[in-house]
Design brief:
By secondary structure, this protein is of the alpha/beta class. It is built from ten helices and 16 strands. The strands form three sheets. Strands 3, 5, 6, 7, 8, 15 and 16 form a seven-stranded mixed sheet that branches. A six-stranded parallel sheet has the order 11-10-9-12-13-14, with helices on both faces. A hairpin with a 2-residue loop joins β1 and β2 (13-21). α1 (45-52) packs across α10 (308-316). The chain binds NADPH dihydro-nicotinamide-adenine-dinucleotide phosphate (NDP).
């Protein structure tokens, strides 16, 4: 038996709770399957949606929640993995259609796993979590576009969130001048400690705006979507780039083509769930190298599995700052 955060939906309604699960309830042992003893998972925005049922993230019931985990291989039917290997997993439908990571044990395809990079503990990997890994994918997209610190200011929206906090820490360490947009002005000092050079109010970007605005951003990491993303594009400099990775304000994109056809800006879509393995490995290697461990610790709070249900509601209510790491064995 092992403990897991189980999401159920039946005549009694939609609910999430910590339960004791039999090993037999894990996905069956098939060729390529790897069983992992999990050390840590985390609460990402999507976990909040899955735990509360606010969006249809979970596709089959009952299902163990949790879109990511870090732990140690227990048994392997995959040539690449052996017992004792330290691994990290993000996405691939885990916690959506496949049994998830908010549990003491998981069984997944070995093809989905990434080796924990040297220099990161399993706890640090989940302090980073899918939010931080997505921030790194966003930075990689901007770098791939040719952005350098000399290009100009980089805007990070949803600054106090998981994606935003890690993006700020990464970009500032890489030498960029980061402008952080937040709805929580009281957190301005904390954002500056993380590396933001300037903090602006969320309201400056969240209302309907003009098709083109004064050129301000060389690059953007946007975790918010909707009018914020439209306004970020409208104020992106000639040939600049925007990485769209989130929808905290909304899924809509009420923009015009003006910034694309008049300023040649590029909008990169960031998808962490189905990202190819080579890109994942690159992102995790870069996180191990470029993320300041002290800043990561400063933005992280540890909770136990029993606290994860409440944390799922809190993250959707915007009450969580930085990252929540879940010690599934606490
Ligand atoms: P968090 O909840 O930690 O961060 C979201 C932040 O967005 C909040 O902290 C808040 O920042 C801001 N925000 C919240 N509500 C609004 C609003 N109504 N209008 C404007 N800003 C708002 O979530 P994560 O960092 O885990 O995820 C951020 C987004 O990225 C989510 O939409 C998530 O689904 C998405 N995501 C996408 C991935 C992908 O593969 N593309 C992977 C991971 C996440 P502040 O208080 O500073 O304003």
């Amino acid at each position: 038996m092992f403990k897991a955060l189980l999401v159920e939906k039946d005549d009694a309604g939609y609910r999430a709770s910590v339960k004791d699960i039999a090993d037999a309830q894990l996905p069956e042992v098939a060729e390529g399957a790897v069983t992992v003893r999990i050390d840590y998972s985390t609460i990402n925005y999507k976990d909040g949606l899955a735990i509360t049922g606010k969006s249809p993230v979970v596709r089959k019931f009952p299902l163990v929640a949790g879109i990511d985990f870090a732990g140690v291989v227990e048994t392997s039917h995959h040539a690449a993995w052996s017992p004792g290997d330290k691994v990290v997993l993000n996405g691939w439908g885990v916690g959506e259609s496949h049994s998830g990571g908010l549990a003491q044990r998981a069984r997944v395809k070995g093809d989905w796993l990434v080796a924990l990079p040297d220099g990161l503990s399993t706890r640090q990997a989940m302090a980073i979590g899918t939010a931080g890994y997505t921030a790194m994918l966003s930075v990689l997209a901007l770098e791939g576009h040719g952005l350098t610190p000399a290009s100009g200011d980089v805007l990070v929206t949803g600054a106090n969130g998981g994606v935003g906090s890690v993006a700020i820490a990464l970009l500032s360490r890489l030498g960029y001048r980061v402008v952080a947009s937040t709805g929580r002005p009281e957190a301005a000092d904390a954002l500056k400690q993380l590396g933001a050079a300037e903090v602006i109010a969320r309201d400056e970007l969240s209302a309907p705006g003009k098709p083109l605005a004064k050129e301000r951003w060389a690059g953007v990491v946007d975790a918010v979507g909707s009018h914020t993303l439209a306004n970020a594009c409208a104020a992106t400099k000639l040939r600049g780039a925007v990485a769209a990775c989130g929808l905290a304000q909304g899924m809509d994109f009420p923009a015009s083509v003006a910034p694309f056809i008049l300023r040649g800006i590029t909008l990169y879509g960031i998808d962490s769930v189905m990202a190819p393995l080579a890109l994942r490995r690159r992102a995790w290697e870069r996180l191990a190298r470029d993320l300041d461990a002290a800043k990561l610790e400063a933005m992280t709070r540890e909770i136990g599995l029993a606290d994860a249900v409440a944390a799922g509601s809190d993250i959707l209510a915007g009450k969580v700052a930085g990252r929540l790491v879940v010690n599934v064995n606490a």
